[in-house]
Amino acid sequence: MKIIDVSRPVQNSTPTWPGDTPFDFELMWTKEASGSVNVGKLEMSTHTGTHIDAPFHFESEAKKVHELDLSIYCGKAKVIHLQGVEVITAHELKKFGLFQTERLLIRTDSWDDPLRFPEEFSYFHPDAAAYLKEIGVRLIGVDVPSVDFMKSKELPAHHSFLENSIFILEGLDLSAAEQGDYELIALPLRIVDGDGSPVRAILRTFE
């Protein structure tokens, strides 16, 4: 069995959504000063790096992180490569033969510099959600910061995924993941009343 880490590193240089809380880690206690341990402090957005969106992120009456079904984020997953496509539509997805896929991860390679927040990236047309629900998808994962157009305020893709009971995993690093079938593990922290959570996402190959 091979493990592929598909989460982005989080460090003080990690780019965040413009205007959001930057990631900051520092040691508050050092072993030299305390005499026993190093202890760090984190300040960060809940949408830093590789993260899940709880529906509460964009719909105030919807589920929060601590209310999510963890089985959504663990289990069989399919990785597909869809480079050079600005808008991911149902038509584009139908080319891949995705039937009986519960967790779909899409490598677009449209975030080309991991040290800079992208100004443009691939995003979903709302018609993709109804098709993905039809074939049984419960989780959609992408290698970009959002499933929606960068400057969108209405977030049509987010809302269409929610309407079709599909949950969202964003900011993956799929650069080492070939197309194919895997086991995904991408568990959110148990953040009570949270709108999102960073995850350590991995893929495991099948024997």
From TrEMBL:
Q: Where does substrate bind?
A: 17
* Cofactor stoichiometry and binding remark: Binds 2 zinc ions per subunit.
Q: Catalytic site residues?
A: 57 (proton donor/acceptor)
In terms of superkingdom, the source organism counts as Bacteria
One biological process term from GO is: L-tryptophan catabolic process to kynurenine
Instruction: Decide whether keyword Nucleus is in the record.
Output: no
UniProt keyword list: Hydrolase, Metal-binding, Tryptophan catabolism, Zinc
Pathway listed: Amino-acid degradation; L-tryptophan degradation via kynurenine pathway; L-kynurenine from L-tryptophan: step 2/2
So where does Zn(2+) 2 get bound? 53, 158, 170
Query: Key word Metal-binding present in the record?
Result: yes
Q: Which NCBIfam families match?
A: trp_arylform (TIGR03035)
**What does the function comment of this entry state?**
Catalyzes the hydrolysis of N-formyl-L-kynurenine to L-kynurenine, the second step in the kynurenine pathway of tryptophan degradation.
Similarity field = Belongs to the Cyclase 1 superfamily. KynB family.
Name under which the protein is recorded: Kynurenine formamidase
Q: Which organism is it from?
A: Metabacillus idriensis
Gene label: kynB
